[in-house]
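It is worth pausing here to work through a concrete case rather than discussing structure prediction in the abstract. The textbook approach is simple: state the sequence, then state the predicted structure, then interpret. We follow exactly that order.
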Amino acid sequence: MPPKLLDDHVRFRYPASDDVVAVMLDCDPVIRGSRELALVGDQWELALPRPDLQRMEYRFTVTRTLPTGLGMETVLDPDNPVTVETAFGSRSVMEMPGYAVPSWLSAPAVAGTLTPMALEGETADDVPVTVWAPEGTDGQPLPLLLVHDGPEYDQLASIIQFSAAKIAAAELPPHRVALAHPVLRDAWYSGSPKYLRTIAGQGIARLHEHGPIDGPVVVMGASLGGLTALLVGLLDVPEIGGVFSQSGSFFQARHDGQESDYKYFGRISRRVQEVIDTRETARPLRIGMTCGALEENAANNRDMAAALRRAGHDVTHVEVADLHNYTAWRDALDPHLTQVLRDLWGDAQG
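Step two, the predicted structure:
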């Protein structure tokens, strides 16, 4: 049967069979508790202390006897129909009581068009961008939301549906959404000066030529994309007025030793420290930040939010009861991204 919440723990089960010799729960390492299921009658069982989460993504790692010896495979929960697509494949999902998907996912939405583009600049490869715009707005000056990891944000977090639904509900004015494709993600999204200048300079100019930009540009992203969105926003580019960063990878040596062997850790941590050490800004930004309260990036996000406020930026920082995944980022778009955009753009009437 699917996992069940019992008092202070979650009970996971996996069906026993003659060839299964061990079963382990595969879930985020920040979740406390044993991962090893025990054989109880005709079921493998695990009582996991209830995590302080609204939902939990997981799989099982199953060890079987094969004609050639032991073999391991990682599988979905065969008794749980609730699954989610992630950047790393499918996961089974345990939803806690009270969890609900955002209402805007199924709300009426305005129709739109998609236009592929390429942003030329200092990077060796052009940056592909797909621009979504509400139908009937060709040539009209509109606000712009620039999204790093854009295709993933759309496929896994429904960012275009978010914009289209909020426009239809008159909660946000008509605007364009530019989905930036992460061709060389690690190299570009790790504080690369060439990438930052390409996006903030030639990139915004090219997007303005495609569709006139009205009002402050807002740049957003998650994880390394959240870091990159902030670094783009902090450049001296007057067109950019807002940043929305989700679970930003603001690596610091004192918090993120587990990341120290990452190829770009040094470059990221140096750039992060420069931002944290900045005591004032001549160009305050409206910055929204969300992060899972239990995830590894929580501490460095708290430090970054405090530093940005100290420097004079208008910062909202919210911790959510989920972890480092696109569903968590999707669920936090409203009201947190909504408010950043309304603060900068007004509503449909404003």
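Step three, interpretation. DSSP finds nine helices and 17 strands in the chain. Residues 4-95 form a domain with the Immunoglobulin-like fold (CATH 2.60.40.10).
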